[in-house]
Amino acid sequence: VLFLVVSSAPAQQQQSARARVDASHYIIDADINPATQTLSAQVQVQFTPLENTSTITFELNNALNVSRITDAAGRQIPASRSQGDSTVRLNFPDTLARGQPVTLTMNYDGRLTGAEESPVYGIKFASIQKDYAFLLYPARWFPITEYTVDRFTADLRVSVPTGYKVVASGFEEPSSDNGGKVTWKFSQKTPTFPGSIAVVQGQPVRVSTQGVSNAVYFREGKEVANAWGDEAGKIMGFLTSIYGVAPSASLTLVETEAGTPSGYAAPGI
215 - beta bridge partners? Predict the structure, then answer.
């Protein structure tokens, strides 16, 4: 699996100047509409400032428009966008004390067709199409801090039209049908990097190799899916013989599309 990290000196300098925070838990309620290629979301994030500050900066995809940000008391927090580094800067009326937990709720929406040049030029991290979708953590499709450093837990509730399924990290809870829409629910209790999701159709091809059972969602057909699932099982068996049992022995493989990184991984996916 290829893990891709893309950065630039100016972006690193800007990030170092931000007040540092530790995001610990997210509650993400998202609605994905493949027909219109749109995402609408309400995200509650719990974080702790690591220094006294009255401004906090989150990274968020430029294609997403923030409509409202409130604190735990329901007060609206003013914010400004910076297209240059795909950030949202929040200005609090009072100083946030170091070490004191804070809860914010952010509402936003936007269109993610895969053609947007954010947050990394020329690399596709998010795409909503009529028959599939994927929103990867590097797309900043939800507000994040300390990219690739700040581990967190999460509860995800993602609604899609009936006939679609959501794939995500964490424990999958029973889905709920709301008349034309299905809400898929996931809970990630171990601090890590959840938040990469896929929207698929149909049943996966299940491939068992060396005691590993993989679910493969490919659009190219069963033969290709079987081959990839078999190789993934062999790789998992080999790595297990060296490093011991993995946190998630069985994997879900999901096809993305041209223009994305040649490989990307989230817990179990």
Answer: 206, 252
**Closest-CA residue to 61 (of 18, 124, 103, 104):** 124
89-117: average pLDDT: 96
Q: Give 242-255 pLDDT, tens digit per residue.
A: 999 888 778 999 99
CA atoms within 13 A on the CB side of 224: 8
232's enclosing H/E stretch is helix 222-243
Cα distance between residue 191 and residue 157, in whole Å: 18
Q: Tell me how far apart the alpha carbons of residues 184 and 140 are, in angstroms, rounded to a whole number.
A: 20
129 to each of 70, 73, 133, 145, 263, how far by Cα in Å? 31, 38, 6, 28, 19
H/E stretch holding 10 reads: helix 9-17
3 residue type, one letter = F
